[in-house]
Automatic annotation (TrEMBL):
<comment type="function">
    <text>One of several proteins that assist in the late maturation steps of the functional core of the 30S ribosomal subunit. Helps release RbfA from mature subunits. May play a role in the assembly of ribosomal proteins into the subunit. Circularly permuted GTPase that catalyzes slow GTP hydrolysis, GTPase activity is stimulated by the 30S ribosomal subunit.</text>
</comment>
<feature type="domain" description="CP-type G">
    <location>
        <begin position="64"/>
        <end position="224"/>
    </location>
</feature>
<feature type="binding site">
    <location>
        <begin position="167"/>
        <end position="175"/>
    </location>
    <ligand>
        <name>GTP</name>
    </ligand>
</feature>
<dbReference type="GO" id="GO:0003924">
    <property type="term" value="F:GTPase activity"/>
</dbReference>
<dbReference type="GO" id="GO:0005737">
    <property type="term" value="C:cytoplasm"/>
</dbReference>
<dbReference type="InterPro" id="IPR012340">
    <property type="entry name" value="NA-bd_OB-fold"/>
</dbReference>
<keyword id="KW-0694">RNA-binding</keyword>
<dbReference type="InterPro" id="IPR004881">
    <property type="entry name" value="Ribosome_biogen_GTPase_RsgA"/>
</dbReference>
<dbReference type="GO" id="GO:0046872">
    <property type="term" value="F:metal ion binding"/>
</dbReference>
<keyword id="KW-0862">Zinc</keyword>
<keyword id="KW-0342">GTP-binding</keyword>
<dbReference type="InterPro" id="IPR027417">
    <property type="entry name" value="P-loop_NTPase"/>
</dbReference>
<feature type="binding site">
    <location>
        <position position="261"/>
    </location>
    <ligand>
        <name>Zn(2+)</name>
    </ligand>
</feature>
<dbReference type="GO" id="GO:0005525">
    <property type="term" value="F:GTP binding"/>
</dbReference>
<dbReference type="GO" id="GO:0019843">
    <property type="term" value="F:rRNA binding"/>
</dbReference>
<dbReference type="Pfam" id="PF03193">
    <property type="entry name" value="RsgA_GTPase"/>
</dbReference>
<keyword id="KW-0479">Metal-binding</keyword>
Amino acid sequence: MSEGRIIKALSGFYYVKVENGEVIQCRGRGVFRKRKITPLVGDFVEFEADSPDEGYIIEIKPRENELVRPPIANIDQAIIVNSAIQPDFSTTLLDRFLVLIEAKHIEPIIFISKMDLISPEKQKTIEAYRNDYERIGYKVELVSSKASGGVLPLKDYFSEGVTVFAGQSGVGKSSILNALKPSLLLKTAAISESLGRGKHTTRHVELVQVNNGLVADTPGFSALDFQEIEAEDLSDCFPEMRSRKGSCKFRGCMHHREPGCAVKEAVENGEISSYRYEHYLTFLEEIQSRKPRY
């Protein structure tokens, strides 16, 4: 019995990387299908090798977390790419991504791309937003669209662990990955002017080495609904609310209409950004009004 990590899944085959760096092509045992378990890229597994380069996956180790789109497990950090322009910077969209990533207990890092394409006035606005998010405790990097100057200093973020990229189409996820590792040659889809977003060009998930870390080369994370988040857990996905929930008058406070709410007080005092709180209320309503699943 050997152990390794799945670094690629393609056409029913799972490519497992072992400690010495070798990659063994494996199939999943039928027992997984019966138990309705699908091995995912990122899974730590035990396998039996029939030959030096082929084997069968016997067991999947417990997962720290997993995503549906892209289908990947045991992620350490997610880089959320939001562009300053084309498409325009949106705190609503950024907060939506942050909530989804926080809910999965993955560390988010914010990249704001295309900073060299905006006016000095807009740069000041973006800088103000950057300060807001850094005050919450997030790491925020402002990135130029010029690969060599803007992206290469970011390599330190890829020194260990598994990273996924998140963000809407056209914000420059593939361009950043290409600049970090030109051999990836990810197809950078031209932005469709009429739609204001890019076209998806990636087909399978694979973990590739960048610096000493592993990066999913499918810039995906396309599911943006809150189907897996319960209303009472939403405020835990906002760090500035999570840290105050013990100070509210009522246990289980939803930070909406309840009196003696520490979160609402922090909004009034300017300690929590009003737009973050408005987004919280919008997301809360979305979760509370969704249809039950049977």
